[in-house]
Amino acid sequence: MSGEPETDISGLKIMVIDDSKTIRRTAESLLKKAGCEVITATDGFEALSLIADTHPDVIFVDIMMPRLDGYQTCALIKNNDEFRGTPVIMLSSKDGLFDKARGRIVGSEQYLTKPFTREELLGAIKKHTSKAT
């Protein structure tokens, strides 16, 4: 226990966009245990219509995806007035400086390297939602 007040993330809507079923299942399981509502999508195209329908509080997006990659997906989210303020966290198996910089350029708030831990996943949500409360 670090002494920090525990931020309750239960009830938040979290979207996980990843073409890997394993990553989607892992994130969904961790997030549901924390009380979050989880929306998953396999790629950016599927995600964009779901975002409009569900208005998630935080979006995790994999960089390497078919059809529409994470950078393009993030840029489209951030270019939409309605969702510009929604935190987007990039997920990647690469921990490169270039990838992180490119993620920042398209407007992502954070970058997590896969495989992520429960603490990293929940910590990222708490970091970007505590401002709203």
Counted by DSSP, the helix tally is 5
Low-confidence stretches: 1-5
The number of domains: 1
Strand content: 15-25%
> Averaging pLDDT over every residue, what do you get?
92
Category by helix and strand content: alpha/beta
Helix proportion of residues, in percent? 40-55%
**Helix-strand sequence:** EHEHEHEHEH
Any idea what the shape is?
globular
Q: Enumerate the strands of the largest sheet in spatial order, edge to edge or round the barrel.
A: 2-1-3-4-5
Describe the structure.
By secondary structure, this protein is of the alpha/beta class. It has a single domain (about 15-125), classed as 3-Layer(aba) Sandwich (Rossmann fold), CATH 3.40.50.2300. About 40% of the residues lie in helices and about 20% in strands. The protein contains 5 helices and 5 strands. Strands 2-1-3-4-5 form a 5-stranded parallel β-sheet, with helices on both faces. Helix 4 (about 95-105) links the parallel strand 4 and strand 5. Helix 2 packs parallel to helix 3 (about 70-80). The radius of gyration is 14 Å and the shape is globular. Residues about 1-5 have low confidence and may be disordered.
Describe what is shown at a glance:
This protein is of the alpha/beta class and 133 residues long. It has helices at residues 21-33, 44-54, 70-78, 97-105, 118-129, and strands at residues 13-17, 37-41, 58-62, 88-92, 110-113.
